[in-house]
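Notes on consecutive records. When two proteins share a document, each keeps its own sequence and its own token line. Never mix them. Below: protein one.
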Amino acid sequence: MPKIYSNPRDLLGQEGTILGPTDWLAIEQDRVDGFAEVTGDHQWIHVDAERAKDGPFGGTIAHGYLTMSLVNFFLPDLIEVRGFTHAVNVGADRLRFLAPVKVGSRIRGAGEIVSVEEVKGAIQSVVRVTVEIEGGEKPACVVDTISRYFPEN
């Protein structure tokens, strides 16, 4: 269940709030292959299961940027902000890939509201999302996502 805020201004003062975790998501080869098609990144460690068996990870792994892009999949399950006319994704800071996501493993998102401020008629929040690997010692990815919400009134 996401943490729900009825208005972007309700985010003010919420720094330190823990969000999630989400449900687990299985990372299968077809998702990795689809990402390779979209991005043109067909490196064998991602798409050649036979060759990857003898590679550094013992099998194929998800692209780092696939893992990062799944943060957008997890965010709606972590936080829901209502009462805005529109919102924009401002970007990301502090992106780190800490462990590979092996095909066949499961990942999930966990979050923390890092900062909230008023910016140019909007409320801007930074949510640090950690992509965890089931049974893993290190997370796959940690990134600070920046969102800007323009309140209705």
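Protein two starts on the next line and is unrelated to protein one.
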Amino acid sequence: MDGLIKKELYLLKIGGSLIAGQRNPNEIKYSEIRRILKEIDNARRERGFNIIISHGSGAVGHAPSKHYDVPNGFRSEKARIGSVITERACNRLNGIVTEIANDIGMPVFSFSPHSFSITNNGKISSVYAAPLKAALRYNWVPVTYGDVMMDLKQGFSDISTEEVLRALANSFSPEKIIVCTDVDGLFEGNPKLDAGARLIRKVDRKNIKMALGCAGPSLKVDITGGMKTKISLLYNAVKGTGTRGYILNGGRRGDVYKFLVGQEVDYTEVVGR
């Protein structure tokens, strides 16, 4: 990383369902945003690592994106207008996250993905990482999010937070990529519907096909594919960089802090080798 970053670096996603409503685009979970950010910041100060935070948008961003068919690009004037509405919604939620982070004393700086990258057919194809590296050098905590992007093939695209993490992993080769969601990890069934569903502790090249088969669609408004997208993009990210990925429960109080300081919690580990 050009000799700029000396400390361990983690990429961490805060799932949209943790900070916003799953179906109501007007629901913002202010107290949960504050709690999760405090857990991250307490661990960061205690252990001294660098971290880039990326967050989802829940129904705040997914609802307008779905309504205006934003993921399929510039197919109509309605979609073009919707791309602006969706981008503004995601940006507003990011503003709330960064304001709360600033209020608790976390030195955050917001980076919209469309300001440092571009997509080609819905996938980030180029990243200009210098601004984020400079921020890390001076002990900022960069905060980014799932966003509407300029796209070389389809005009614009709506990309998931996991896609942002995949692209950043290729630029930074972090020690860990951490996805905080509302369940303990990947299960053999849906734990919200089946209390007996077993947690899959590890995903690697030997069981990735099975894991993707277990990862079903989201039960909420989600245009990015739910758990299957999380597993697929996380696996591709760690396979390409040699880092390790983790999916854990950010909705359980204390688990994010415990994981970051090395205490035992439930999670699914994702390795590419």
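For the record: The CA atoms of residues 125 and 259 lie 31 Å apart.
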